[in-house]
Design brief:
Number of strands of chain B: 12
Mean pLDDT of chain A: 91
Strand content of chain A: under 5%
Order of helices and strands of chain A: HHHHHHHHHHHHH
Structural class of chain B: alpha/beta
Strand content of chain B: 5-15%
Helix content of chain A: over 70%
Largest sheet of chain A: none
Largest interface: A-B, 29 and 34 residues
Structural class of chain A: mainly alpha
Distance between the termini of chain A: 44 Å
Low-confidence stretches of chain B: 1-32
Helix content of chain B: 40-55%
Low-confidence stretches of chain A: none
Shape of chain A: globular
Mean pLDDT of chain B: 87
Oligomer: heterodimer
Radius of gyration of chain A: 24 Å
Number of strands of chain A: 0
Largest sheet of chain B: 6 strands, mixed
Order of helices and strands of chain B: EHEHEHHHHEEHHEHHEHEEEHHEHHHEHH
Number of helices of chain B: 18
Shape of chain B: globular
Radius of gyration of chain B: 22 Å
Distance between the termini of chain B: 11 Å
């Protein structure tokens, strides 16, 4: 009487979770815990002593102009990459959702860059965007324009990288949007047609609202990717010119593997992870408010 | 800390050469190896240098029970990055051919490479016999031990395209030497519609080793850091003058603000630009009409006065044995084999890079240099080269200076003196005790 009723407990059920638990503890929890531990120490690769510095690395980081530059660069990257990803992703998804001959071929074509090696993509675009002998400037010159310093100008290099990353990942986001389009009830579209809505009105008032969950997901994933951009600036610009394409992860890499200061690099990693969580939570809250 | 204030020894000229070349396969277990026998791994630079290592490995494997296999260094934009990552992960193999001076102090202090003086009784005598006492002393660590085997040097000089110089009305047989002469030549070339020079503007630290740093060494005759490598030494007249020269080069549009390639894609090697700062490794890249029809000459890097021998950057690389080596003695025996007189001569002949061997000239013979006249100035230049400072912070120092160079010289965002002062403050903080 009055006692709690427990559901029958399957004592062996924990066994089923064991493989993932082992995976999680080994590849997520332990490295994360170790990174936090390292960030609280002066952890140089070459030093025998690794003294405790508490929040020292974090305090230095918040005053480090290059780290702050890397965060500002990421905001510029996102300002170009996010709208481009959303507009092109939705446009392509809507186009590929319609039935037309060769649809499967085009779906495959747009997905190809996503499954191509990032290194290959970065090197190919580096060549295409070369100021002197790049194919893009060659095309501009045939039209009578001057070539642009796509990767050698401090104001154009980061937007160029943002476009390259958007191009590479577009196929994946198109898939997400295509999935979102499948969830929009056909009856809504038919009702709008019956009411005499134009294609644009149907897109604005039926398709776009129906895609909101997919849009929220794409924004979150693109933002996370944006804060993790590494290979493209590493291979295409080395973080230059004048640190204009320095990203937090590239800076982390430089601190870790060039300066051999693993403690500081770990602190960068943790701060970047926290910034990503905060930004994504803010975005989610904003998008939920807009939805309700 | 290490010391590094001396120029490396000169490499004399003379002798005859036999190249024992044979085909090699990339990677994989050596052929004819008995089951269960030990295979030891060597990391080598990718490309033709790696192919050369594989040839030597094949020769070694034919006559020794312990087999080696040469693999390309894990890919990274700088070999130092790949090595640092491997040392951190303790996934290094037996040895690495091509360790940079910039990284060698870190490798020694981290315990990532073997103390050769301690491990092998003949290590120091081997280096002295091959390269001379000055080289041995130059690369001793603070503890007095040797952790690297100095391998080869590639002095940075200035190639020039004689046909393009003549086209611009310049005396191709009397190329420029001082800053003002270089700038006047660049101006004449630009007026004639010829691209004067095409150096890379890339931000990555090691690019500065092939543009500003050699001119700095020519002017300063000492490294970027103080004798005890605990303070900056570049914020002086030599630093300002040499960087101002490059600022002029970019401000007047003599060098485009674009990332020129370093190999056969460089405009110089394609006959499109007149000058190119590079080392002897560039000679094989000049396979087209540039070398044959236009005629190529090589002169020292610019200097304010250009009186006496002009100092330049030696780009010296080393062989190291990692602490993870499974068979230390076999690794050391292989190092000695790789660096024997025959292989050194073959390396010079095939790679056009200069092994640090005092008898090299005699070994390859006078006829070799008659057939390879472009190599002669580089070999002569080896008597006046300096290396990087032997500090664990050298890469950070060069990274700082690369940003200063971009800011002051390439993009003209701030005065040279201000950029160097700023860089000096950062470097002092970095290396200060």
């Amino acid at each position: 009487m009055g006692g709690k009723r427990h559901k029958p407990h399957n004592r062996g059920s924990w066994l089923y979770t064991l493989p993932y638990a082992i995976f999680f503890l080994t590849f997520v929890a332990y490295p994360l815990g170790f990174a936090i531990y390292m960030s609280l120490h002066e952890w140089g690769l070459i030093s025998a002593e690794r003294p405790w510095v508490g929040p020292g690395n974090f305090l230095t980081l918040f005053r480090d102009p290059l780290f702050l530059t890397s965060l500002a660069n990421t905001l510029l990257y996102l300002a170009v990459n996010l709208p481009l990803t959303l507009v092109c992703g939705i446009a392509l998804a809507v186009a590929l959702n319609a039935s037309f001959p060769g649809r499967a071929f085009f779906r495959t074509v747009y997905f190809l860059p996503y499954v191509t090696s990032t290194v290959v993509v970065a090197l190919l675009w580096k060549w295409m965007l070369s100021t002197d002998d790049g194919i893009l400037n060659g095309f501009l010159r045939t039209l009578g324009f001057d070539g642009l310093p796509w990767l050698t100008s401090t104001w154009l290099a980061m937007p160029s990288i943002a476009v390259v990353v958007a191009w590479k990942s577009l196929g994946f986001y198109v898939l997400l949007f295509l999935g979102g389009l499948q969830t929009i009830p056909r009856s809504l579209e038919e009702a709008a047609v019956t009411d005499g809505a134009t294609w644009w009105q149907r897109f604005l008032h039926v398709t776009l609202p129906g895609l909101r969950p997919a849009i929220a997901l794409v924004i979150a994933l693109s933002t996370i990717t944006g804060f993790q951009v590494f290979a493209e600036p590493y291979l295409m610009t080395g973080g230059g010119p004048l640190n204009s394409t320095m990203t937090p992860v590239l800076y982390l890499y430089q601190k870790g593997f060039q300066s051999l200061d693993f403690g500081y690099a770990a602190a960068i990693g943790i701060v970047v992870a926290l910034v990503v969580v905060a930004v994504v939570l803010l975005q989610r809250r904003f998008l939920e408010e807009r939805t309700t | 800390m290490w010391i590094n204030r001396k120029s490396v020894a000169a490499v004399a000229v003379a002798g005859s050469l036999t190249i024992a070349g044979c085909s090699a396969e990339r990677g994989g277990a050596p052929a004819g190896q008995p089951a269960g026998a030990q295979t030891l791994t060597i990391w080598a630079p990718a490309g033709t240098e790696g192919d050369f290592v594989r040839k030597v490995v094949e020769k070694w494997n034919a006559g020794h029970e312990t087999k080696f296999v040469a693999q390309d260094l894990p890919a990274a934009t700088a070999s130092e990055d790949g090595i640092a990552a491997a040392v951190a992960a303790k996934s290094t193999p037996e040895l690495f051919i091509g360790a940079s001076t910039a990284q060698s102090p870190s490798l020694a202090e981290s315990g990532g490479v073997l103390n050769l003086s301690k491990e092998f009784p003949d290590a120091e005598s081997f280096v002295t016999q091959r390269s001379g006492q000055a080289i041995l002393d130059n690369y001793r660590a603070a503890d007095g031990s040797l952790y690297v085997v100095p391998w080869r040097t590639n002095p940075v000089m200035v190639f020039h395209n004689k046909a393009l110089l003549k086209k611009a009305g310049l005396d191709a047989e009397k190329p420029p030497a001082t800053y003002s002469e270089y700038l006047a030549a660049f101006k004449a070339l630009k007026v004639a519609g010829i691209a004067p020079i095409a150096q890379s503007i890339d931000q990555t630290w090691w690019h500065r080793n092939f543009d500003w740093y050699p001119t700095y060494l020519a002017a300063a005759k000492h490294g970027l850091l103080s004798e005890k490598v605990d303070a900056s030494a570049f914020n002086e007249q030599a630093g300002v003058e040499s960087m101002t020269f490059w600022r002029e080069v970019f401000a007047k549009g003599y060098n485009a603000r674009s990332s020129a390639g370093l190999d056969d894609t460089n405009p110089f090697n394609q006959g499109k630009s007149a000058f190119y700062f590079s080392g002897p490794w560039n000679i094989p890249s000049m396979t087209g009409p540039v070398a044959k029809q236009a005629g190529v000459g090589t002169v020292p890097v610019p200097d304010a006065k250009a009186t006496g021998p002009v100092t330049t950057y030696g780009d010296i690389k080393h062989v190291v044995i990692f602490a993870t080596a499974k068979n230390k003695s076999a690794s050391w025996e292989f190092v000695k084999f790789y660096l024997n007189a025959e292989n050194d001569a073959a390396f010079l002949s095939e790679m056009k890079q200069i092994p640090l061997r005092t008898t090299l000239a005699d070994d390859v013979g006078e006829a070799f240099f008659k057939d390879n006249p472009l190599l002669v100035p580089f070999v002569e230049q080896t008597g006046s080269v300096l290396d990087l400072d032997l500090s664990t912070k050298t890469i950070d120092v060069l990274t700082t200076l690369s940003t200063a160079y971009q800011s002051a010289a390439i993009y003209g965002r701030q005065p040279v003196a201000e950029a160097l002062k700023q860089a000096a403050d950062q470097v002092d903080q970095l290396v200060g005790k």
